[in-house]
Amino acid sequence: MVYSMTAFARSELSTDQGNLAWELRSVNHRYLEVTLRLPEAFRELEGPLRELLRKQLARGKVECTLRFNPAEQQSSELSLNQPLLDQLIRTTEQLSARLQNAGPVNPLELLAWPGVVIGEKTDQGDLVKQARQLFDQALKELKEHRAREGAELKQLIEDRLSSISERTAVIREMMPTLLTAHRQKLIDRFNDAKLELDSTRVEQEIVLLAQKIDVAEELDRLDTHVAETRRVLDSKDAIGRRLDFLMQEFNREANTLGSKAIDTRSTQAAVDLKVFIEQMREQIQNIE
């Protein structure tokens, strides 16, 4: 299955202790990069969630944010960790004594020190467990979103592959006609210059021209790349990097076809191929 790296999911749960809400955002990235934003009380979830994401996702920049709004009845009266506060005050006084022109200590800065302000201790084990289960739900929704967008990307790529196959077939069909037309053009040039035609010389020039504009090998490789891309699209593994490599190979053959084009029709066909390849490449940047 093809998965897009671009997706969003949100899961919310109301509990007796308050409201939990997960927001998961995923965008394209070369590797898997996870950012977790958790309230301090839920910090123990960070390790298990990172491990879970590494197992479930292969690529993408994923931002996971947990928001917790405590219920009003759960709000507790704040108190101070007096031993820690006394230690901080002593330390700041000692430091001020060693510094010249030291400013007064801001009480708000002391209150911001981790652990100074404490509240009534409550058992949040169930709440953390609920947040963990809610994350599973959000991750499932995120993967479903990635799968839906991936299916759309796959269809777009399939359409472009069909267009490429059609263009290569047209080029194959027109090559004998192009060679015949250039043979006649060469004869006309001899006639216009009022030169005596040497049939052997003309045939030699035609052979050289045929070798120069021969694109059978490039067309064969394009057909091979089309078949390989379709095979990769049906793979069960992460396919984005493999598809990106194939787009480079497509471009190489299209450039060669453009350099060997000898009239407007073959030139336009080569340009069309490059357009289709670029359209695929842009979409493949979003595939896992």
TrEMBL record:
Listed GO MF terms: hydrolase activity; RNA endonuclease activity
Domain Endoribonuclease YicC-like C-terminal: 171-288
Transmembrane segments: none
Pfam families: YicC-like_C, YicC-like_N
The entry's keywords: Coiled coil, Endonuclease, Hydrolase, Nuclease
Family annotation (InterPro entries): YicC-like_C, YicC-like_N, YicC/YloC-like
Coiled coil: 128-159
Cofactors required: a divalent metal cation
Every Endoribonuclease YicC-like N-terminal domain range: 2-155
Keyword Nuclease: yes
Protein family: Belongs to the YicC/YloC family.
NCBIfam families attached to this UniProt entry: YicC/YloC family endoribonuclease (TIGR00255)
Name used for this protein in its record: YicC family protein
Annotated organism of origin: Halopseudomonas oceani
